[in-house]
Every structure is written in structure tokens, then in C-alpha cells.
Amino acid sequence: MNTPVSRTGAEHRPDEPAVRIGALVPLSPPGWVEAGRHLLAGLELAVGEANEAGGIDGRPIELVVRDTAADPRKAAAAVDELAGLGVVAVAGEYHSVVARAAAARADALGLPFLCSSAVLDGLTEEPTDRVARLAPAQSHGWRLYADFLLGAGHRRIAVATQPSVYWASGIRILRDRLSARGGTVTELDAVALDPAALCDELVADGATALLLLVGFPEPAVSVVKSVRHDERLARMLIGAPAGQPEFADWAASLGGDGAAVPFLRYLPERLGPLGARVETALRGRLAGAPSFVAFEGYDTVVVLADLLRSHGPDRARIADSWPQVDVEGTRGRIRFSRTPGTGVWQWVWPPVQVVDRDPAGPDRFRVLHSG
Fold first, then answer.
1. Which residues are CB-contacts of 347 (< 8 A; sequence separation ≥ 6)?
2. CB-based burial of residue 357 (10 Å sphere; 0-12 exposed, 13-18 middle, 19+ buried)?
3. Percent helix, strand and coil across the chain, each rounded to 5?
4. Of 243, 220, 225, 222, whose CA–CA distance to 34 is shortest?
5. pLDDT, the chain, mean
6. Would you call 220 helix, strand, or coil by DSSP?
């Protein structure tokens, strides 16, 4: 069992116990550590600001952080531990399969869970009132991505994939959307095929776009380099709907080869005053540009702090109050509703963009499609 990590952002007296919120974050491999770091930066920034503004009726918020390391069993055990530590809610997580395990355990314990970043539609096996989500459902974002591909003239799509509930779900969404408009999706096994063999399969298939539904850094980096340097595939579009190119590690690993790879990002084209202020603060914490995941972390605490101020630090009342949320976040007004196919309270919808890194300057992003 981990030693609790407390992130209050403010001092408090012993007679004013902190309001504890559990935070699930991937901070070690095989979790995506950079995504976890951004998520945590957003969570911590918002907690610090809430405490500077007086906390919850004078009581500071304390963030109790647990590293999930992209392990569903570790996440479920962390939820058990956090419940025992008296947290009023659990928040966070980036990896969809991990978030699903955390949601199931939180629901079983009667503990509210606000999922920050995971998008898998079926976040819970059965509908529940205890779980809410800020990130858009995968079906929403990936359909928009399919529309982008069709609009760009791509009808024959190949996907390099690995075994995963998340990737399999993505393939179904893409195939349904594309086939309804005359498109096709060919699956290429990135476990059985090395990058050179995968390139041969792409040539034989005649696909005009390859989507990376694989882990990062490997095999994603090797696949991108192989395709980029294969003269037979000079016109091949490489895409990564899951958002791998958002993070600095992508650019550091691939340089110019990592540009012009469209991905999904959950930001508006232009941030409002709150978003712009938070972006500046996050840049200071991260020593670089914040990803959309950092904004998701910040908005998570904005929602929970609003509920705690309105309804108090009571688990049952928090879980009953998702439909009453109406608060300004960094990316727009946040309200929750029930969305068919998700089983949880859902923000419908965060802004969704298809963007890529500009080949003329890979540190810049180009917005290619919005929805």
C-alpha cells in the first residue's frame, strides 16, 4: 500500500479537517507517464486555486494521489484504499481500460467517480448514477475523425492494431461510420507484422491512410519511421486518433517524421478568459505547452469543488447531484446528461478537434476539422 500523497495547496488547522479527493493518475510505465503528468498538473493547479479562494466552507481540499501505472487491478486496489482513507470522491485516470476498472470498483463502494480523460463508451457494465465523465465518448470523437478522413478523400483505410478493448472499440466505430459512406477498413496485426512487413501489406492493400491503433513509443515510432521512409508509401496519410502526437515525447521521438499525423484533441479553437489564464499557469508548471489532458484535470476539480460547495462533502449527495452541475470550465460550460450507450453522466460535449503538427514547425498545431 502506498503512503498517501497529499496536495492541499494551503495550510489548515487541526480543527478544520481537509476535504479529501482521491486522484488516479498514470505516473509510471507502462502507463503513459507524460499524459499522467499533465493530468496531475491540471488537478493540482485547480486544487491550489480552490484553496486560495477559501476551500470548501473554510476547509481545504486535499488531493490524495495514486499511481495506476495503466494497471486495472492496481487502480481497483487504489479505489479501495482511497475509500478507506475517507475521500469524498475519486477523480482522474487517462487509460480507458484502467478507468473502467476504477469506475466499477467506485460504483460498488458507493463512491462518486469523475473520470477526467478516458473515452471508452462502456465505462461501466451497467448504468450508474455514481460515475460521471468529462472526456467525450469514444464513439463521438472517432466518428468525427472518420468524417475528417472522408472529407479529405480517404475511403480505403488500414489500421495497425494491437489486442485491446479500446482499440477494438475504435475499429468498430470507424468501420461503421466509413462503411456507411462507401469506405473500408483493413486490420493489420502490429504484433505479428514487423514494420517492414506492415509496409508490404499496405502496398498490397492499396490503402491511402494508415491509422495507428498501437502503443507509444513502440511500436508506433517504428511504424511511423518505416512508412515515412518507404518510397512506395510517399502519399500515405498516417493518423493517430487516440492523440499520441499531442505530447512532446512524440515530437522528441520522431522529429519531422511525426508532423502531419492527424489526431483528436479536446480543445476549442480559441480559449476563453478562464482557459487562457489556466493555460499560462499550466505552462509554468509543465515548463511547456499544456495538452488537452491538463485542461481536463483542471476542469475535473472545478466540477467537484462546485458540487462540494453546493452539496457538502457527502458521497451520496455528490452522486445525486451530477445533473445539477452547471459551471464554467476552461473549455466551455460544463453540464452533464445521460447519453445512450455510455451508462454514466456525461458532458455532452466537450469541444473536439482533428489537428496535426505543422510540418513547417512541428511545435505548432494546425486545426484540420472541428465538431
1. 132, 133, 134, 136, 334, 335, 336
2. buried
3. 40, 20, 35
4. 243
5. 95
6. helix
User: Are the C-beta atoms of residues 179 and 171 closer than 8 Å to each other?
Assistant: no
What three-state secondary structure class fits 92?
A: strand
Cell of 310: 453546493
Q: How do residues 295-341 score in pLDDT, each as one tens digit? A: 999 999 999 999 999 999 999 999 999 999 999 999 999 999 998 88
- pTM here? 0.94
Q: Where are the beta strands (DSSP E) in the chain?
A: 6-7, 19-25, 61-67, 89-92, 113-115, 131-133, 156-161, 184-189, 209-213, 237-239, 263-265, 327-329, 332-334, 336-338, 345-347, 353-358, 361-370
The residue among 220, 217, 248 whose CA lies nearest residue 38 is 248
Give the whole-angstrom CA distance, residue 68 versus residue 93.
8
Phi, psi of 124 (to 5 degrees): -135, 155
**5 has pLDDT over 50:** no
Q: Compute the distance between CA of residue 134 and CA of residue 114 in angstroms, rounded to an integer.
A: 7
Per-residue model confidence (pLDDT) at position 2? 45
CA distance 255 to 28: 24
Beta strands in 35-155 (DSSP E): 61-67, 89-92, 113-115, 131-133
**204: burial class by Cβ within 10 Å (0-12, 13-18, 19+)?**
exposed
What pLDDT, in 10s, does the model give residues 88-129? Answer: 999 999 999 999 999 999 999 999 999 999 999 999 999 999
Is the pLDDT confidence value at 10 over 90?
no
Instruction: Report how far residue 137's alpha carbon sits from residue 350's, in angstroms, rounded to the nearest whole number.
Output: 10
Whole-angstrom CA distances from 36 to 81, 118, 207, 243, 343 are: 20, 12, 34, 14, 25
Peptide bond into 217 cis (omega under 30): yes
Within 10 angstroms of residue 66's Cβ, the number of other Cβ atoms is 26
Question: Are 63 and 89 contacting, i.e. CB atoms less than 8 angstroms apart?
Answer: no
Annotate 53-69 with DSSP letters as a single string: TTTBTTBPEEEEEEE-T
pLDDT at position 4 is: 38
Pairing assessment for the beta strands 345-347 and 353-358 based on DSSP bridges: unpaired
**Cell output for 144:** 468525427
pLDDT of residue 195 exceeding 90, the answer is yes
Burial 78-97 (b: 16+ CB within 10 A, else e): bbebbbeeebbbbbbbbbbb
